[in-house]
Every structure is written in structure tokens, then in C-alpha cells.
Design goal:
Strand order of the largest sheet of chain B: 6-7-8-3-9-10
Number of helices of chain B: 10
Strand order of the largest sheet of chain A: 1-2
Radius of gyration of chain B: 17 Å
Distance between the termini of chain B: 32 Å
Helix content of chain B: 25-40%
Largest interface: A-B, 20 and 28 residues
Order of helices and strands of chain A: HHHHEEHHHHHHHH
Distance between the termini of chain A: 35 Å
Strand content of chain A: under 5%
Helix content of chain A: over 70%
CATH class of chain B: Alpha Beta
Bound molecules: adenosine-5'-triphosphate, magnesium ion
Largest sheet of chain B: 6 strands, mixed
Shape of chain A: globular
CATH topology of chain B: Rossmann fold
Strand content of chain B: 25-35%
Number of domains of chain A: 1
Number of strands of chain B: 10
CATH architecture of chain B: 3-Layer(aba) Sandwich
CATH superfamily of chain B: P-loop containing nucleotide triphosphate hydrolases
Number of domains of chain B: 1
Oligomer: heterodimer
Shape of chain B: globular
Chain lengths: ~300, ~240
């Protein structure tokens, strides 16, 4: 019984981070129809910036917002300088739909090399701002610490903030309209190009938060977020790639599912299982668990 | 005074010349019907005028300013609103969100609210369905919603692409009646693209008949309707 509880708690923490990465991918997919593999690179760069703040000031609470803003700026720049002109130029060619995706893969490589040149390949560390040791009840210590609680709460806050922005504000309405029907949105006066850049900025900020949150547990190196990219991508697909709720549900399902496989089946199977889950979802519910149509409006 | 002046407009789709040296004018406050059969180039004309399609040659001005080459979202800010064909609403949004979209770029939020209530007065059926998904609307209601959204932007020039498409005759009559009453009340200039020549010319001041991208005839709608040759060849009644 306790093992089931413990395994679930481990899964929920991991799943929260997957949800954030999934959300970052969904935000870009919705606004531009691009699967942004560079997201791992953008997040790692933002996390290194956060790391610099922590090494200088020893203040995690300053590093988090700085990394978040850096992530937003990097995301906006990637869209404005690269993706926008690429989608315009290749609008009709045979590579039309795939060129931007290949470009994001290329960009991932570029950012990783640049990060490697600046900070080197060694694993860096910074400490969590609150205890990373599990809560103790009597004689039992559960694998869920104050820091895990912080991760889960931050994820919930991010999800709520985006839900409110998307559902209750004019900016959110413009983001949704531009995502669903860019031409109709333009004819209604929405500056779709700019709105898309806002979507990329939101995604970049979210990826940065994921990077800063996971690093005290995983360490930081130029490719320390690569597996998170894959987990986030699978979580986004499970959730239908279109909706915020889908990203949250997909992340949790994947996080908890993988924790159980590691605990009860074989810990070596965790990574391959990710892809089994991906294939099963694609085969059984190609639209993702949250069907696209309903997901889009959420 | 001619408010909209189109001269020698030429638009290609690849090798196909969809609009071929087209010239016409529309007076301020006038309702002009652009009539032509399938493939005449009507949609292409509107898309070229509102920046959705690049043009080959020619010019177009609204109140003396060139409009060609401008982006649709910027033309909206100059009062030029294009309601595209196919009842262009966003089905994933609610009726109210679709309406709100029309006022999203405007700073005068008080007037946006006023415009919204005017639209609901004009199309009460929208008012009863504000929180419904636009997906659930009938064809006629969708058309009302698309026009209503444009009205919330306080247009001066309204370009409507086949609002009657796929609607029952009674509904067409309602929509056309609404178009006519609002443009008289608001002093709008309207370009109404239609295949449904009879209904359109009934409410129009002027008619512009095009075929294969070329101008066939232009003039007062009463004169066009009374021309037996035009009636037989292009107006279909
Ligand atoms: N995107 C496109 N690519 C290639 N050719 C096109 C395209 N859009 C329109 N055309 C062609 O341009 C011509 C004019 O088309 P257009 O859609 O403007 O006609 P229309 O008068 O609006 O017709 P309808 O009444 O059927 O809507 C047609 O020959 C059409 O096949
Ligand atoms: Mg047409």
C-alpha cells in the first residue's frame, strides 16, 4: 500500500515537469503548427542563465523569474528571426510543412553547441531553495519533499495562469483565434504574426520554468533536458497536442505510468515504455486522450 | 464622390488570370452588388482588395488612399472589413467570443460595447445564443455572426462575399434586409458579391457584372435589371 502511494508521489512530481514541457510544446504547436524540438535548447539556455544568477546571488527566487523572462525573450526571438520568415518562404514548396520542424532540430544543435562553448560540458549543480528530503511521518519517510511540493504547486499555478489568460483575456482570445483560423483572425484585425510570437514567448517561459525546477534533481549540462523534451513530447501527444488540459493530463499519466513501470516491472524499461505508450495512444486514440476538437477550445 | 476606385486591376492564380484589367467605382454610402457566375473572379477580387492576395497590376484606392499591398489587419484599422465566403466564423469559439473578436483591436471599449448591443438588436438570435459554441449555429446564424463581428469593428467599407451561399430563400431575405437596413442607418459603403443576382440587385443602388475576370457592365441596378440582354445572359431571370 505504501509502495503504491510512494510510487504515485514520485510519478506526480515527474509528471508535473513533463506537463510543463508538454505545455511549452503545445503552445507553439497551437500557434504555429510547428513541433518545436529547439524547446529543449531554449530551456537549457534559460536554465544556464538562471544558474548564473544563482551562482552570483545564491538566490533561487531571483533566478526563477530571470530565467522565465530570458526564456520568453529567447522564444520570441526564435519565432521572429527564424520561424516567421521560414514559414513565409516555404509556404508552398514541397518542404512547406517540414522545413520549420527541421529548422528547430538544427537550432537545438546550435544552441547546445553554444551552451557547451560557454559553460563547458561538466555537470553543474545548484541547490533547491527548500528541503529536498522527503516528508517524515513517524518512522516513515515518503519520497515527496518540500521541493517536490514546490514543483507540483508551481506547475498548477502555471496551468491556472495560462487557463485564465486563454479563457478570460483579449490576448487569450486573439491567441486562440489566430491558432484556429489565422485568416479569419486577420480579417477581424488580429495581428497574427505578433500574436504567434507571443505564443512562442509563453512557451519559452514555460520551458524555462521546467528547466529551473528540474535541475536541482537532475543536474545541468548542455543536454540535460533532452530526455525531458521526449517525455514532454509524448505527454503532449497523449493529451492531443492541442490543449492545456491535455498537456497536464498527458504529463501526469506519463509520469505516474512510468513510475509504476520502474517500480513494479523493470527500471530499465522506463525509457522504452515511453515509446510504447506513445504508439499505443497513436494506435488506439490517434487524436490523443483529450480529443482535438474539444481540446482546442480548452 | 467615388469612395472606392478600382482601376485596371489584374490578379493571377499561377497561370490562371482570375481578375483581368477590372475597373469600377463605388460611391460613398452606396451599396454596390458585384454579380458573376462561378469562377467569375469575385472572391479573388475581394481578396486582392483586402490584402489576402497579391496583385499583378492596377490600383485600388479608398477615400484617396491606396489600399493594395496593405495587410488585412491594417485595413481593418482604416474601416475596411471583409467578410469572407463560407460564413467565416470560428467554430471553436462561442458566439460571444466571435463577436468580441471584432472589437479586440479597438481602444474605445465603451463604443465596442455599444456596437455589440447594436449588433444584438439587429440579430436578436445571436443575443439568445451568446454562450453557445459557434459550431452549433445554423448557416443563416453563422452569416449573421460573421457580419455582426465586422460591424463591431465600426466599418466604413464592408465587403461581403456571397452571404446568401447555401441559405434558404427566406433566410436570404432576412439577411439582405438586415444588410440594407444597417447600411442605411450607419451610412456604410457596401460591396456585396453575389451569384444571387435578383436578390442582390433588389437592394443594391448599383450593379457591377463581371465574367471571367472582366467587366461586362456597370450601372444603376434598375438600369441593369431592365436590360433584356443582360438579364438573359448574366442575371438569370
Ligand atoms: N487558390 C487558387 N489557386 C488557383 N486558382 C484559383 C484559386 N482561387 C481561385 N482560382 C481560380 O480563379 C478563378 C476565379 O475564382 P474565384 O474564386 O475568384 O471565383 P468566384 O467568382 O468567387 O466564384 P464562386 O462564385 O464560385 O465563388 C477561377 O478560375 C478559379 O478556379
Ligand atoms: Mg467566390
Amino acid at each position: 500500500m505504501l509502495t503504491i502511494l510512494n510510487t504515485s508521489l514520485i510519478g506526480i512530481t515527474a509528471g508535473s515537469i513533463y506537463s510543463l514541457m508538454a505545455l511549452a510544446l503545445v503552445l507553439v504547436w497551437r500557434s504555429t503548427r510547428v513541433v518545436n524540438f529547439a524547446q529543449a535548447g531554449q530551456a537549457i539556455l534559460s536554465t544556464y542563465i538562471g544558474y548564473e544568477v544563482i551562482s552570483r546571488t545564491n538566490n533561487y527566487w531571483l533566478a526563477l523569474p530571470v530565467a522565465l523572462v530570458a526564456g520568453a525573450v529567447i522564444g520570441a526571438l526564435v519565432d521572429a528571426l527564424l520561424i516567421r520568415s521560414l514559414t513565409k518562404r516555404s509556404a508552398n514548396g514541397p518542404l512547406a510543412s517540414i522545413a520549420p520542424i527541421i529548422a528547430t532540430l538544427g537550432l537545438l544543435g546550435v544552441i547546445r553547441s553554444v551552451v557547451g562553448m560557454i559553460w563547458g560540458g561538466d555537470l553543474r549543480q545548484y541547490k533547491a531553495p527548500v528541503s529536498n528530503i522527503g516528508f517524515t511521518f513517524g518512522h516513515t519517510t515518503i519520497p515527496f519533499s518540500r521541493y517536490n511540493l514546490l514543483i507540483v504547486i508551481t506547475t498548477i499555478v502555471v496551468m491556472i495562469v495560462f487557463t485564465v489568460i486563454f479563457q478570460k483575456t483579449s490576448l487569450g482570445l486573439a491567441l486562440r483565434a489566430a491558432a484556429f483560423q489565422p485568416e479569419t483572425a486577420r480579417l477581424a484585425g488580429v495581428k497574427v504574426d505578433r500574436i504567434r510570437t507571443v505564443g512562442w514567448a509563453f512557451a519559452g517561459a514555460t520551458g524555462a520554468v521546467a528547466g529551473v525546477l528540474i535541475t536541482p534533481q537532475s543536474g545541468l549540462s548542455p543536454n540535460s533536458l533532452d530526455s525531458l523534451l521526449i517525455y514532454g513530447f509524448v505527454a503532449a501527444v497523449i493529451g492531443g497536442l492541442e490543449s492545456l488540459i491535455g498537456a497536464a493530463v498527458g504529463g501526469l499519466v506519463l509520469g505516474v505510468g512510468l513510475a509504476f513501470i520502474r517500480e513494479y516491472v523493470n527500471s530499465n524499461l522506463e525509457f522504452p515504455s515511453t515509446f510504447v505508450v506513445l504508439l499505443l495512444v497513436l494506435l488506439i486514440k490517434p487524436g490523443g486522450i483529450i480529443a482535438a476538437r474539444r481540446g482546442r477550445s480548452a | 464622390m467615388s469612395a472606392l476606385i478600382v482601376s485596371d486591376l489584374t490578379v493571377d492564380h499561377g497561370a490562371i488570370r482570375a481578375v483581368d484589367g477590372l475597373s469600377f467605382t463605388v460611391q460613398q454610402g452606396e451599396l454596390a452588388a458585384v454579380i458573376g457566375s462561378n469562377g467569375a473572379g469575385k472572391t479573388t477580387l475581394l481578396r486582392a482588395l483586402t490584402g489576402l492576395k497579391s496583385t499583378k497590376a492596377g490600383s485600388a484606392t479608398w477615400k484617396g488612399n491606396s489600399i493594395l499591398g496593405q495587410k488585412p489587419e491594417n485595413l481593418v484599422r482604416q474601416g475596411i472589413l471583409h467578410v469572407a465566403d463560407g460564413k467565416s466564423v470560428i467554430p471553436e469559439l462561442t458566439v460571444e467570443e466571435n463577436l468580441n473578436l471584432g472589437g479586440i483591436w479597438r481602444r474605445d471599449k465603451k463604443d465596442v460595447a455599444l456596437a455589440k448591443s447594436e449588433v444584438i438588436d439587429l440579430f436578436p438570435r445571436l443575443g439568445e445564443r451568446l454562450s453557445q459554441s459557434a459550431d452549433t449555429l445554423s448557416g443563416g446564424e453563422r452569416q449573421m455572426l460573421a457580419i455582426g463581428r465586422a460591424l463591431i469593428s465600426r466599418p466604413e467599407l464592408l465587403l461581403l462575399d456571397e452571404p446568401s451561399l447555401g441559405l434558404a430563400p427566406l433566410v436570404i431575405e432576412q439577411i439582405f434586409h438586415a444588410i440594407n437596413s444597417m447600411r442605411q442607418r450607419l451610412g456604410l459603403t457596401v460591396v456585396l458579391v453575389e451569384q444571387n443576382a435578383m436578390s442582390a440587385l433588389k437592394i443594391a443602388d448599383a450593379g457591377i457584372i463581371i465574367n471571367l475576370g472582366k467587366l461586362v457592365a456597370a450601372g444603376k441596378s434598375a438600369d441593369l435589371v431592365n436590360d433584356p440582354a443582360l438579364r438573359a445572359a448574366y442575371l438569370g431571370y
